[in-house]
Amino acid sequence: MVRYSTVFFFDLKIGRSSSVQARVLRLWEARRMRHGVNMKFIDLLLIDGHASLCYDSIFLS
Questions:
Q1: CA-CA distance, 43 to 56, in Å (whole number)?
Q2: How far apart are CA 2 and CA 31, in angstroms?
Q3: Would you say 45 and 26 are in contact if contact means Cβ atoms under 8 Å apart?
Q4: Best label site of 5, 9, 13, 43, fewest CB within 10 Å?
Q5: Tens digit of pLDDT at every position of the chain (61 positions)
Q6: What are the distances in angstroms from CA 46 to CA 5, 12, 39, 53?
Q7: How far is residue 8's CA from residue 33's CA, in Å, rounded to a whole number?
Q8: How far apart are CA 29 and CA 4, in angstroms?
């Protein structure tokens, strides 16, 4: 069994990190056409145990 220590978003520091574990609060997909190319994005809204929010957007080619 693997054990993880709890780290909240506001505790994160800029630098090297091997991984971040979070739960996805909301996940949605947006598609749009630009110059004849289908652009696909995934937007993530993450929340930790202290209700700190983190937004991320991923572009999929």
A1: 6
A2: 37
A3: yes
A4: 5
A5: 556 566 676 777 777 766 666 666 565 666 666 666 666 777 777 776 777 777 777 777 6
A6: 18, 14, 23, 6
A7: 37
A8: 30
What would the two tokens of residue 39 be? Answer: 């652009």
Residue 57: half-sphere exposure toward Cβ, Cα within 13 Å: 6
pLDDT at 56: 77
Structural domain boundaries in the chain: 22-60
- What is the per-residue pLDDT for 55? 77
